[in-house]
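Sample 1 of the test manifest.
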Amino acid sequence: MSPRPPTLRENRRYLLVRVEPAGTVIDQKDLYYAIADAVTSLWGDSVAGVITQAVVAAENGHVIIRCLRGTERELALALSTVISCRETRLALRIVAASGTIESLRERIRAITPLPEPVPEHVTGPVAASSAEPAECVFAGKPFLFAHCNGQKVDVIEKGFKNAHRLFLTRSDLEIS
Amino acid sequence: MKITDAAVFPYPCGDTSVRRLALEAGSLGFDSLVAMDVPAGSFGGVEVFSGILIKDAPMRDVIARVKRAKDSGTVVSVAARDNAFNRAAISLKGVHILRNIQAADKNAFDHVTAKMAADSNVAIDIDLSVLVAARGIARQRAIHRYRDLLALRRRFEFPVTLSSYARSYLELRAVREITGLGSLIDMDTAGVAAALGGVGRVTAPPVSAVRVIA
């Protein structure tokens, strides 16, 4: 089957979406199913069939999601109801919409920050080597740094049991 | 008019500290938050109001707790129950918000209660977490209840607030997303803007009907 000429193809739009929390490993297929479930649950099969959403790319903590032109609003609303992907809690924050994937890729390159070092002034017993994550203490419990970005600090409770992730700021660690 | 999320639950109820919630809320377009059971403050340009939620308590305890919180700057909320309880709660001086109306009885909020809420300047809360996280019949019921509530609001003009009930910053939603969610329950952009400013409306000191000029 030969591909359709451009004038006969459907017009599509692409949404650039940031996946939070930072550092979440995204499987495109799992995310596709999570989004398809949200779209179908909110709008029903008839509208989901028109939106024809698809996860086109996942890179640097962002995903690009395709939809039919004119259905961006419906897709964006459905994306705000996605709360997890395969038992992993996440939030999808819409950054931009565009008619081409390439312009969104440029946008990802422009907004992806450089990784920051963990805050030294709040570390307790500093890790022995740089390969190991540094530690901190919050509310009397030891935590490991999972991610730092500006004031935002994500920490994971130390230990193999109850490894909860907490979302804090540098000020919280300085005060505790 | 401040854009306010009327209920968040920071650490230790949730997994996000109040500072982080304020930081994230600021980046999502909010000016202030009502954080339950934490002291008030201002973090990163976002004002945090202290709030309490009274639920599953007999009326005598509700009265005592409201009295204790009066004039402390705390946003006092009461969880809705049956119609008689809701009317009594709304008529209490010092109650700012009536919550969980979607989980209360079908007849828990009628036109008389709506009129009382408008007269007493008590806001009725819309819980967005149900619209976001619930699926199937639970979400359909909530949408139906909120549409009914907003039909009464158009008639009686009582204040409405919008709450994310976020226990994590992942559960916060941007103002633009909230506007979209509002469209599901027949709430236009102006209605969403008014509801986001609802906390400011109910916590503002009452304006006297008569102004003494001399």
